[in-house]
Write a structure and sequence with these properties.
Number of strands: 21
Mean pLDDT: 94
Strand content: 25-35%
Organism: Choiromyces venosus 120613-1
Pfam families: Pyr_redox_2 (PF07992)
Low-confidence stretches: none
Keywords: FAD, Flavoprotein, Oxidoreductase
Strand order of the largest sheet: 7-6-5-2-1-8-18
Shape: globular
CATH topology of the largest domain: FAD/NAD(P)-binding domain
Protein name: FAD/NAD(P)-binding domain-containing protein
Structural class: alpha/beta
GO molecular function: electron-transferring-flavoprotein dehydrogenase activity; flavin adenine dinucleotide binding
Number of domains: 2
Length: 392
């Protein structure tokens, strides 16, 4: 039986799904991958790469890895559309794609569609800094610009005190030291508000203060505007308490937004995430599946990815072979949190929280602080292992 499976997105969930299906599905099945970039981007390392890529260690060149060479070895079973999905018609089972380089539009039909288009962090101020793959596939350029902006600035404000903001502030101060004045602004009273133990955020605050990062909590940035004439700095930031501060550079790390503008509204919840059923299908559909950050489930962390795409592809295989929900695997979402937050390269400047336990900072430095785990990027890009280091 032939079947056309279309996958939108080639990151931590879409790419392993493509590799798995090409390795294990029947030869008659065709896999089409749609993505605006031909590189796998290991954005886990973005807080350090946004400061200086070379300090990621000997594998720093693996920040961006071409993924097509391994996939194209499967011959005519694999097709790649270099562009962005611009529309999905569920009645005709067609995806419209705007091709990169101004090459117009094309379309592809599907028997099963996997939505793995992820999320972005540009909505806070309309600017992209490279913490997620760029919306236009130009992440390498974005990171170059981020590094240049950080290098040129003397006073830097990082708004948002989640893991990315805390890591990025720590990396700037660790690399540049006294050259830069770094201020973290947090809307919450403590840092790392996603962690249900305040002592974890308190430990992060202590480390940042130790390395010279300033911290302002309980307020948020409500407006960014060009600095008035005579005011030092490039921008002025209006805070929720009425204060106005100036800076050479403001980098917002808060807010995450789904890449779902191309999807029919009936597939989405009010915030734009794909509504899901327990089998990893888009709610109310039989052959549309969603995996990764784009789903309506919270806790959008790398630790949840493997459980999602593996259930989806197994159920697709069962569906094509004539099975239904009676044989489908069920996905059980876990909000159990695992978070490792290094703040620079120095031992043991990190905090670790795993399933209710606060662990030693030395563990966080060993797991992530040395290289940001970039040595695990190539096996994912080449379809050897999953993000969770499981063999595909």
């Amino acid at each position: 039986m032939t079947s056309n499976i279309v996958i939108i997105g080639a990151s931590y969930s879409g790419l392993p799904a493509a590799h798995y299906l090409l390795k294990h599905a029947p030869e008659s099945w065709k896999i089409t991958l749609i993505n605006p970039s031909t590189n796998f981007y290991f954005n886990v390392a973005s807080p350090r790469a946004g400061v200086e890529q070379s300090i990621l260690g000997k594998n720093n060149g693996d920040l961006f890895i071409p993924f097509l060479p391994k996939l194209e070895k499967h011959g005519s079973r694999f097709a790649f559309l270099h562009g962005k999905a611009s529309a999905v018609d569920t009645k005709s089972q067609t995806v419209t794609v705007t091709l990169q380089g101004g090459k117009g539009e094309t379309s592809v039909t599907y028997d099963h569609l996997i939505i793995a288009s992820g999320a972005n962090t540009s909505g806070a101020t309309g600017k992209e800094w490279g913490f997620k793959h760029g919306l236009e596939g130009n992440t390498e350029e974005i990171l170059v610009n981020t590094r240049a902006a950080v290098k040129a600035a003397k006073k830097i404000v990082v708004s948002g005190a989640g893991a990315t903001g805390v890591e990025f502030a720590g990396e700037i101060k660790d690399f540049y030291g006294a050259e830069k004045e770094v201020l973290v602004i947090s809307a919450t009273k403590e840092l790392l508000p996603q962690v249900p133990r305040a002592d974890v955020g308190a430990s992060a605050r202590k480390i940042l203060k130790k390395i010279g990062v300033k911290i302002k909590t309980g307020v948020r940035v409500v407006e960014e505007r060009p600095a008035a004439k005579g005011v030092e700095g490039a921008v002025e930031l209006v805070l929720s308490n009425g204060d106005v501060i100036s800076a050479d550079l403001h980098i917002a790390t808060w807010g995450i937004y789904p890449n779902t503008s191309f999807l029919p509204k009936d597939l989405l919840d009010n915030a734009g995430w794909v509504k899901m059923d327990e089998y990893m299908r888009a709610e109310g559909t039989q052959n549309i599946w969603a995996i990764g950050d784009v789903t309506h489930w919270g806790n959008r962390k790398l630790t949840t990815v493997d459980g999602q795409w593996t259930v989806a592809v197994q159920n697709i295989v069962s569906s094509i072979n004539g099975g239904g929900v009676e044989v489908f695997k069920k996905y059980v979402h876990s909000d159990s949190l695992m978070i490792v937050v290094p703040m620079g390269r120095k031992f043991p400047n990190a905090v670790v929280f795993i399933s209710g336990w606060k662990l030693w900072g030395a563990i966080g430095w060993f797991l992530k602080g040395r290289t940001y785990m970039i040595e695990g990027a190539r096996p994912v890009a080449e379809g050897i292992t999953t993000p969770g280091r499981v063999k595909i």
